Amino acid sequence: MTATPRTTLGKVRAHQTQNEGLIFEKSSPGKRAYKLPPLDVPDVDPAALLGGAYRPEPGQLPEVSEIEVIRHFTRLSTWNYAIDLGMYPLGSCTMKYNPRVNEFVSRIEGLAEAHPYRPESLAQGSLEIVELLQRCLIEITGMDAITLQPAAGAHGEFTGILLVRAYHQSRGNPRKKVLIPDSAHGTNPATAAICGYEVQNIKSNPEGGIDVAELERIVDEDTAALMLTNPSTIGVFESEIHRIADILHAKGALLYMDGANMNALVGKTRPGDFGVDVMHLNLHKTFSTPHGGGGPGSGPVACKAILEPFLPTPVLVRKPAPATTTPTTTTPGAPGPSHLGTGETTQLGWSFDRPQTVGRVRAFYGNYGMFIRALAYILANGPDGLRQTTEDAVLNANYIRAGLQDLYELPYKTASMHEVVFSDKRQAARGIKTGDIAKRLIDYGFHPYTVSFPMIVSGALMIEPTESESLEELDLFIAAMRSIAAEVESNPDLVKSAPHSTRVSRLDEVTAARKPILRWKPTA
Amino acid sequence: MAYPDTYRYTKEHEWIDLSGSIGTVGITDYAQSTLGDIVFVDLPKVGDPVTANETFGSVESVKAVSDLFSPVSGTVTEVNEALTNAPDLVNEDAHTAWMIKVSLSDPAQYESLWTAAQYQAFIAEEV
Amino acid sequence: MRYLPKSDAERAQMLSATGALSIDELFAMIPAEYRITSDLDLPRQLGESEIIDYFKAAGAKNAVGLASFLGAGCYRHYRPVVIDSLVQRGEFLTSYTPYQAEITQGTLQAIFEFQTMICELTGMDVANASMYDGSTGAAEAIMMATRITGRSHSVVARSVHPEYREVMATYHQHQGLPTTTVDYNRETGQVDLAALDAAITPDTAAVLVQSPNFFGVLEDIPAIAAIAHAKGALLIVSIAEAVSLGLVRPPVEADIVSLEAQSFGVALSYGGPFCGVIATKDKYLRQMPGRLAGQTTDADGQRGFVLTLSTREQHIRREKATSNICTNQALVALMATIFLTVYGKEGVRELAHHNLAKAAYAASTLGTQPGAKLLFAGSPRFHEFVLQTTDSPIDLNNRLLTHNIVGGLDLSKWYPELGQSTLWCATELTTRDHIDTAARVLAGAPVEA
């Protein structure tokens, strides 16, 4: 028997991971991972109580013990790449470090166990967090008002465009169309469509930005808004931003900013100062709340005063404290609201009296747990830390650009902010596409960059390192990308068939889509 | 793959085969090879109207959706249900894997479409 | 700043590699008049211990340690400890949407398991990887029904959570999707079937009901389905209390189920993040919004999972997408998956049984006190009930609060016709002692210390 020598590639060395089937395949009747306390009330007969609504047969959920639960999900977890393992340069996604103190404070009992309908007098701590986060985000964006209700970025876009619509409607005409650059995220046109607007695409200019002359030509009284990502998806700041805003405003249209790339701006400039009327933030991008494999996010929407009357209900206000909502007796030392009744004359609370509101966009108040984490991040940084964060994010992107621009085509030479977009033009000449390079990057121990986006770049490699990468990690990344560029020349098949070091090789997406298997089924 | 001389073609890469007043419509081999593995074909219902140069459905690959444009105007008389469960038939032989049959409202439209030679000259330029 | 892994010397070295002379040169594209030159007006940088102190103080300002009878779409159930220890693994917590399948098999397989469990519980064929929550899921379900049927109206029961109805109205107001609201029967608390039948027109895409409904009452799903289907409308069932599915017959007659999975191991957290999910029949799969994980094989024939049917989504179909949803609630869906694995086939049933028993005891105990009346008493319920009292809800709840009990939710804002009524919820965490104490307060009787 000949042993394969263990090899190291970049920062990677193969190691064992456990095989693990589906949890349903580990199930056997009678095993259990829970124990309920005995009932302290009279037992009931569910079939009698529920009558025709009674469920005779339980669903086929797994039956396993606690150690099996732990092992199953721990084993699955080891098959994931994560920020905690290394650089995750997904452009537009801002995969930065997720501080652990955020997780700790979000689980503090008084906050995690607060019911949204508890009396406001018993939720003052929760509400103070909302108030402080709102104040911080308004200051950071330079806007006048904010709602934290939207559950994610696209939900924020939806809310923001509803505000635009309500604003125009209040002036007599909701208008017809929303302008969207061809470099935009797919959520922008999808959002405009569900808000009842026609989408008019605008072609980018040769620098990858808005063609201002073209914009001036097409903005008219039917234009409700321009949805602009700034910096754009190629990582370029629209230096004529105020002129763009002026063109829109001259025709009564509004400027919506997709804040996906706010990590390039915090502490260095404020959208409210450069003419933006309404924008969303992604707390899971810029403000370090974890992506969690695809969510939850949180998409606050900040706006100028002209849009404030239309914000979703409820909005946070200070109101006179009611006299009778505090306990009259509490046992010393016993758990209870004994701290209340301190004579405060106002308290925080929700206002529903908003005649011009667009309505609710979500039940309750939003993804509250994300507010706690985002605020913890802001407090950990302070104004100086936030500015340094932005500077480091931009420095990192430019360092990668400098390290790779001789080997990878840079379709837009404009100065990069927090991300740099290359194209696969030179590698494509050898039959290697951006997707192949991305898969090969996995072998070097990195998560791929964003592949084939933005669509204005053919074969895009969209790289956003964020501020969380050290010089050492960046150098390893650059070395890996340079090594792959060399492999494209010397051994293209190696790149084309990558990844070679993962648990599974390239997966058959075609069959998955032609004959979808979307759930496990018991074998008959 | 051969482009049958008996078919007519469009610049949106559809073919049509006319028999009496009924046209059979599909996409060209060039179109299927550009799209790659087709995973889903979305087609209209029998009785639906179609209009020349307007969409009547779509074909999907794993990461793209392409609209299907009708070469002619008329009414859908038949739909190739086999494609619902086997969209790969289009990849295997695009020129027999038809999508819809249309009763033409204006047979003159057919005459204005490209011949096989004209279409092949067109795609030769696109490549 | 402790999150930034660079020394100033390294920054200088990197800056010189970029060819820029100063960091501000990298920001030169921002016109000078919009560049900030001084600190933002924000709290100063805090040490970790200060951050913890701040949030602990905020938590303490919220009353803690109270017994609560609040439910209404947000339910307090026990959350097994393993959930938090597993979801805090960095590989789950700090990974992105699993677009690169080879290095996200953990997330993908967990989503596949989640989809399976939701199908098993709801009786549907397919389920997505999650929506934001139950309210937005309900709104998206109606949009889905309009795409399927080509019709534009919806009929929504007034016994659906009022905030869900507000969210649906917000979503549909600009899409030309009018809604008719159908009242409930004052005796049963269930949707008025005759009024429902009358409200459905040939333009009705879907009927949406919630079960258990906002009053905790179970709707007659087979009857509602028959009425809707007879007129070619789809039936959407919204479920806000997922634990009910342990003992309540799944709404198999529905065409779409919109579930809020918060009860499966997710903290109340002042209302979010929660976990919506849409499930449906196979034939409607292509019109379903949201991500989906599917099983396939790799080049070596090994089983693996990928995100699939992405052409429905906004990043490909843009303005023609089924929804604009992108980020979902993946980590919360993972919590629900772990919860359902811990409880499993028997446990979810036993858990539902405990909820049923607690609520039955609470309803009969509170509902028989002087000055109190149990509404909709003859209807099947899960773990919530409506109590009408001679005391005003404010007075009653203030009295309860002096005994560290948060009473039921005042319904007067949404259902003034019910007079002085409150919505109560009992779960497996509600103790007999809480119920008995509340009953004595309700009766105005002395309460033992």
Task: Describe this structure as you would to a colleague.
The complex is a heterotrimer of chains A (524), B (127) and C (449). Chain A is an alpha/beta fold. Helix content of chain A is 33%, strand content 11%. Chain A contains 15 helices and 14 strands. In chain A, the strands form four sheets. In chain A, strands 3-9-8-7-6-4-5 form a seven-stranded mixed beta sheet, with helices on both faces. A three-stranded antiparallel beta sheet of chain A has the order 12-14-13. In chain A, helix 9 links the parallel strand 6 and strand 7 (254-258). The radius of gyration of chain A is 27 Å and the shape is globular. Mean pLDDT of chain A is 93; it is low at 325-342. Chain B has a single domain (8-121), classed as OB fold (Dihydrolipoamide Acetyltransferase, E2P) (Beta Barrel). In chain B, 24% of the residues lie in helices and 32% in strands. Chain B contains five helices and nine strands, in the order βββαβββββααβαα. Chain B has helices spanning 29-35, 82-85, 88-92, 108-111, 116-126, and strands spanning 8-9, 14-19, 22-27, 40-42, 49-50, 55-60, 65-69, 74-79, 100-104. In chain B, the strands form two sheets. Chain B has a six-stranded antiparallel beta sheet with strand order 1-2-3-9-8-5. Chain B has a three-stranded antiparallel beta sheet with strand order 4-6-7. Chain B starts with 7 loop residues before the first strand and ends with a helix. The mean pLDDT of chain B is 93. With 449 residues, chain C is of the alpha/beta class. Chain C has two domains: 67-78 and 345-443, Aspartate Aminotransferase, domain 1, CATH 3.90.1150; 81-339, Type I PLP-dependent aspartate aminotransferase-like (Major domain) (Aspartate Aminotransferase, domain 2, 3-Layer(aba) Sandwich), CATH 3.40.640.10. Helix content of chain C is 36%, strand content 14%. The longest helix of chain C has 38 residues, at 330-367. The mean pLDDT of chain C is 96. Chains in contact: A-B, A-C, B-C. Chains A and B meet through helix 15 of A and loops of B.
